[in-house]
Amino acid sequence: MRRRNLLRATALGTGASLLATASRAAAAPALLTDRPLLTYGAQSGEVTADSGIVWTRADRPARMWAEVSTRPDFKHARRLRGPALTEATDFTGKIRVDGLCPGRTVHYRVWADDGRAGLPVEGTFRTPRTGGQDVRFVWSADLAGQGWGINRDFGGFKIFDDMGARDPDFFLCSGDFYYADNVIEESVTLADGRVWRNVVTPEKSKVAETLDEFRGQYKYNLLDEKLRAFLRKVPVVSQWDDHEVINNWYPGKVLDDARYTEKNVDVLAAHAWKALAEYTPSLLASDGEGRIYRKVSYGPLLDVFTIDMRSFRNRNDANNDPATPSGLLGRAQLDWLKRALSESTATWKVLSAGMPLGGIVSDGKPNQDGVPQGDAGMPLGRELEIAELLSHVHREGIANLVVATADVHYTSAQHYDPARAAYKEFTPFWEFIAGPMNAGSYGPVKFDKTFGPEVRFHKPPAVAGTGPLDGGQFFGEMSIDAESRALTVRLHEIGGTELYSVEIPAA
């Protein structure tokens, strides 16, 4: 990682001068327009036992600064000098904070300084213990899709209040954090005459094609107060799916969509990657360094393996080749995943996948966007990669693998078992689907029987495309008990209602 992209911070002193500056500014509000403002709050992410990343964005060129402390009053705080916030990264920046202690609540505040210090924004995150501790995280996907944007009469993105109420250690964003290919209009009139009223911005008035328009997708969502409040207190693990670029995209795709002047999807994907690197508290760099597939460890009980099911996939076709050369993951990513799973010593291994492993997702007949194609026999096409992965897990004796996924806009729990499958060489496992967070609700998808899935629970909408006014917004929660080491999975609807739960004992 290059210094200009992600500055590894060092301690420079205490926070006394910042407090004095903030107090003077608060006493003289008229002067605030002369000071840098943080336009979209602060976020944290990629938290480990001894480090984390903090993020912010200013309204002008400035220097990013942060202070961190284990005390909410910031006594004995460390001051950290961050990167220059410049037009090159749309005035965003992040600081990697090292030297933290395991199992502590870390209080941080960030501000921008252009010779005059702006007011700080505060946040918190928790570092995992190196010994046993209960672990809880939430996951979901699909935000501001199908025209359902920020409706302040509705309460904005209310699901973030519900997820925050679970007091998670982190939030796993499973992709489609925005919809670059969906326009947000001022209002949506439902069939029964009810009206959904959206906040609108210029960048969301058309599909995203330029870098600034992709940046504008993040800016739009971050206008929501509930989302900003959630991100200040819950660290994020980010990945992407298709709508960060365009629906069902793959490398090399050329569009025939009349809404687009830029037809080359690779150009759109490059813009989306840079915006993702700039607007998330991740290890990704805006010049293309870093990768979405990685392992995130949260103590001895949990390793999360996020995978990238978009960047390395083959084109969407009938997906029935008995020996397809690439699939969804690509050889380098698949080999990394097998190796990382073998090396993991965590009790539970959660595979964070952008799409269900057995759900049939069409890209217009006969083409398929997902893993299977509907042939219930032996693996074909992209299923060959999954078969190789599952067989590796089985042969290596890797226990306690669970899949957390999204993409299909409803919630579901399914159990895969070789006793029900055409392909037999794998260990039974669970898969759980969550989402959307604030988008249209669809489903259910049909499941291919190659790996023997059995749906134990699902909640699709009565009418496809149902919006947040009628519910149909979901998130998942996984919690591990440190004493029993059992994993409990809960599926929740907006409002916090628990729809389904299952306790899975550790092997």
Protein described:
With 507 residues, the chain is an alpha/beta fold. The protein folds into two domains: 119 residues, Sandwich (Immunoglobulin-like); 370 residues, 4-Layer Sandwich (Purple Acid Phosphatase, chain A, domain 2). It is 16% helix and 26% strand. A seven-stranded mixed sheet has the order 14-15-16-17-19-18-20, with helices on one face. Strand 9, helix 2 and strand 10 form a beta-alpha-beta unit. Helix 6 runs parallel beside helix 7. The chain is globular and about 65 Å long. The two termini are 38 Å apart.
Short description:
It is an enzyme of class 3 (hydrolase). This protein has 507 residues and is an alpha/beta fold.
> Could you tell me the radius of gyration in angstroms?
22 Å
Number of domains: 2
CATH topology of the largest domain: Purple Acid Phosphatase, chain A, domain 2
Q: What's the total count of β strands?
A: 23
Task: Write out the strand line-up for the largest beta sheet, numbering strands in chain order.
Answer: 14-15-16-17-19-18-20
Number of helices: 7
State the separation between the terminal residues, measured CA to CA.
38 Å
Q: Biggest sheet, open or closed, and with what strands and sense?
A: 7 strands, mixed
- What's the CATH class of the largest domain, please? Alpha Beta
Unreliable stretches: 1-30
Give the overall pLDDT as a whole number: 94
What share of the residues lie within helices? 10-25%
- The CATH H-level superfamily of the largest domain is Alkaline phosphatase D (PhoD)
CATH architecture of the largest domain: 4-Layer Sandwich
Order of helices and strands: EHEEEEEEEEHEEEHHEHEEHEHEEEEEEE
Oligomer: single chain
Alpha-beta classification:
alpha/beta
